[in-house]
Amino acid sequence: MIIARTPYRLSFFGGGTDYPAWYRREGGAVLSTTIDKYCYLTVRHLPPFFPTKHRVVWSHVETVSTVAEILHPAVREGMRFLGFDDAVGLEIHHQGDLPARAGMGSSSAFAVGLVQALTALRGQMIGKHALALQAVALEQEWMGDAVGSQDQVAAAYGGLNRIAFQPNGEIVVDPVTVPPARVEELQAHLMLFYTGTSRLASEVAADVVANLAGNEAVLRRMRAMVDEGVAILGGGDGVEAFGALLHEAWTLKRALSARVASPVVEEVYAHAIKAGALGGKLLGAGGSGFMVFFVPPRRRDAVLRALAGYLHVPFGFEREGSRIIYYGPRGPEPLPASAGRGAARRRGRGEADDVRAGAGA
Fold first, then answer.
1. CB atoms within 10 A of CB 96
2. In the prediction, which pLDDT does 51 show?
3. C-alpha–C-alpha distance, residues 79 and 122, integer Å
4. Exposure of 86 by Cβ count < 10 A (0-12 exposed, 13-18 middle, 19+ buried)?
5. How far is CA 199 from CA 103, 139, 262, in A?
6. Distance CA 21, CA 214 (A)
7. Which domains are delineated in the chain?
């Protein structure tokens, strides 16, 4: 049995420049961090005592005979991408600390965790960079999703990073090297809220990608903000300028597509600013989901009161990235060919036991 733990991310600046359609022309960059909220994937070989071959547990419980029957697109295509077939059954369980489709990079965290867990199930190790590239290839090339490249890299590496996307396709990750006290100061100024809604990020992203040609000046400015944000964190003054830069970035992001900001998001943002937030943004491609605000500590209570109708989510930064937190490599032992009818009877009893036990791993 393998358990992979993969963090979700907060993206501050440069979102939009991480789409291959853009950075393959002009290059791109983002400034982001991962937080202590995680996607967990448990993967094991399914013992041969059940009448079905594969079992996938997410918001649904799937028991199927072939990979092709799996409804979860990332699981189905991830298994195919990595060369898994129906020769040996798999059981895959997903659990997440945060809801999906809410702007925290959950789909890419899932892809990263799945690649790492299935690779480990084969008794192989994969480095952070190769892991990120595999997850990018799975989502963009194999599945054809309209997603950028930053979320997979952030989830694989972990930490507060400047991530550059080169026109030749190379991805370079540079940790932001500032004193720990400075990172703590930044974290103390951030507040995360859940608006209670979700959306399919790829739909908003597809609209953003379709409008790239008409937003070149906006994207160049958003790319420049990455280095400005890093300079603020590395400077000697307070971090308040980071909040003002976030506000400018949010204003520019709204110009990328009419679908980026819903009326609910606009209302939440206005209330937070009026209560004392210096800036903020909707996380992810846009539409709805989680919002992060830059709030001076003395104004935190006022912002909490102003957004009392929304869920405040305390968090901390994390630096580990995706990792295997449990590794029990032993797989199921195949039934002997001579088992005959006894094997079938045992398989039937196993099915009943599975129902009574709630199919626990």
1. 19
2. 87
3. 12
4. middle
5. 9, 17, 11
6. 13
7. 2-324 (3.30.230.120)
Q: What are the C-alpha distances in Å from 110 to residues 31, 43, 95, 271, 310?
A: 21, 13, 10, 33, 26
**51-107 pLDDT, tens digit each:** 899 999 999 999 999 999 999 999 999 999 999 999 999 999 999 999 888 889 999
The full DSSP string for 267-291 is HHHHHHHHHT--EEEE-SSSSSSEE
What's the CA angle centered on 78, arms 75 and 82, to 5 degrees? 140
**How far is the C-alpha of 107 from the C-alpha of 139, rounded, in Å?**
9
Helices (DSSP H) in the chain: which residue ranges?
20-26, 73-81, 106-121, 128-136, 150-157, 180-188, 201-210, 216-234, 240-253, 263-275, 300-306, 340-356
User: Which pLDDT score is estimated for 202?
Assistant: 55
Give every CB contact of residue 59 below 8 A, 6+ residues apart in sequence: none
Give the CB-side neighbour count of residue 49, counting CA atoms within 13 A: 16
CA angle 330, 336, 339 (to 5 degrees): 130
Q: What are phi and psi of 65, to 5 degrees?
A: -95, -20
Tokens 């703590």 correspond to: 184
Q: What is the pLDDT of residues 285-320, one digit of tens each?
A: 555 689 999 999 999 999 999 999 999 999 999 999
Number of residues written out for the chain? 361
pTM: 0.87
CB contact at 8 A, 164 and 46:
no
Locate 133 and state its tokens: 């590239």
Which amino acid is residue 234, in one-letter code? G
Separation of alpha carbons 130 and 113, rounded Å: 13
